[in-house]
Amino acid sequence: MSRKRRAAGLFLLMMSFLFGFYGIGMYWPEALPAKGVTVPIPLGTTNAQTIASLARSGVLPHPRLFHLAWALAGYPPMQAGLYEFRGRINQAQVLHRLIAGQSTPLSLLIVPGWRLQDIYQEIHDKAPYLDQQNLPQGAAAARYLARQGVGAQGSAEGWLFPDSYRYVPGTTALSVLRRAYVRMQRELHSLWAGRAPGLPLGDPYQALILASIVQKEGAPPAEQAHIAAVFLNRLRQGMPLQSDPTVIYALGERYTGSLTTSEMHVESPYNTYLHTGLPPTPIAMPGLGSLMAVLHPADSADLYFIAQGDEYHYSESYTQHLKQIQHYLQHAGGAGL
C-alpha cells in the first residue's frame, strides 16, 4: 500500500472518529435527575456565561462540543429565559431551545382592584426572577415611582393597568411596571376620547380616580355602570360620594376588617364621607370594565344603592333609600350607600 493511500486511510479514520465523537457527544441523550434541571439565563448574560451555567447544571456534559456546534451554526444569539429540562435530552436539543428561546413563560399578574402594595407583594412572593434593584420601597414608593416615569400627578397608585405581563429572568421590575403604566395611559386616553357627553369630570385623571372607587366597591361587572352613574350624579349635585373603600384606603394598615363608627370619621382627604368631590388620587388599579363604566355610565338619576350579596337596589331619593334599607338590609344584612 502506498504512503498516500495509508495517509488517506488514516485521515478518513480520524475524521470518522471525530464525527463519531461529535455525533455521540451532541446527540446521545443524557438522563437528568428525576426532578429535572432549571437554569435561569438572565438578560445581559454573555454566551460564555450561558454555556458555563448549563455545564454547571449538568445539562451539558461536553461544553466544548456544544460551543463547537454553536460556532458551526454561525454563532446565533442564545436567548435569555428560564429553561427547564426533564427526562432525557441531548446537547443538540439544548442548543435548539436556547437559540429558539423555548423557555418557561414568566409573567407578573396585576389584578383589578389591587393597590400598589399588593403588586409589590406579588413581586416579592411570586416573581423571584425579576430584578428588584432600584424599585422604590416604603410608604413613599408611589411618589418615587412617579418620579421614575411610572405614574403621573405625583403618584403611581391607580396607574398600572391590570393584566399579565411577560418577562424573562433579569428583567427589572421597574421596566415591567413601566409597561403597565404605558398600557393604562393608552387605554385611559382612548376611552376618554370616546366618553359619553356631559360627565362631571374635568380630565382623564378624575375618571381614573372614580374608576378606582367603582372597582373597589366590588360589584359584579353588570352593576358597575349603574354604580358609576350613582357616583357621577352625586358629583353633579355636590353630594359626598360616601364610599367605604375610600375610608379603608385612608386607614391603611389600621383597617382591621370592618369599619367602626369612629373610623368612618377619620380625618383624611380620602374620606368621602367627610369631604365632597373626589379623593386626591386613585385608591386602586381599576380594570377596563370600571373605566368603561365611569366613561359610559348607565342612564340613571339614582343617588343611592344598597347591596345584598350580588343583588343591587337603587333609589333616587333618601326616603326611598331608607325604605329599601329597612326592606332589604335590616332583615337579611347587606351594605349600602
UniProtKB/TrEMBL annotation:
It is found in: Cell inner membrane. GO terms for molecular function: lytic endotransglycosylase activity. It catalyses: a peptidoglycan chain = a peptidoglycan chain with N-acetyl-1,6-anhydromuramyl-[peptide] at the reducing end + a peptidoglycan chain with N-acetylglucosamine at the non-reducing end. InterPro entries: MLTG-like. One of its GO terms (cellular component) is plasma membrane. The record marks E217 as: Important for catalytic activity. Pfam families: YceG. Its EC number is 4.2.2.29. The chain crosses the membrane at residues 7-28. GO terms for biological process: cell wall organization; peptidoglycan biosynthetic process. It is a single-pass membrane protein. Keywords: Cell inner membrane, Cell membrane, Cell wall biogenesis/degradation, Lyase, Membrane, Transmembrane, Transmembrane helix. Functions as a peptidoglycan terminase that cleaves nascent peptidoglycan strands endolytically to terminate their elongation. This is Endolytic murein transglycosylase. It comes from Acidithiobacillus ferrooxidans. The lineage of its organism: Bacteria, Pseudomonadati, Pseudomonadota, Acidithiobacillia, Acidithiobacillales.
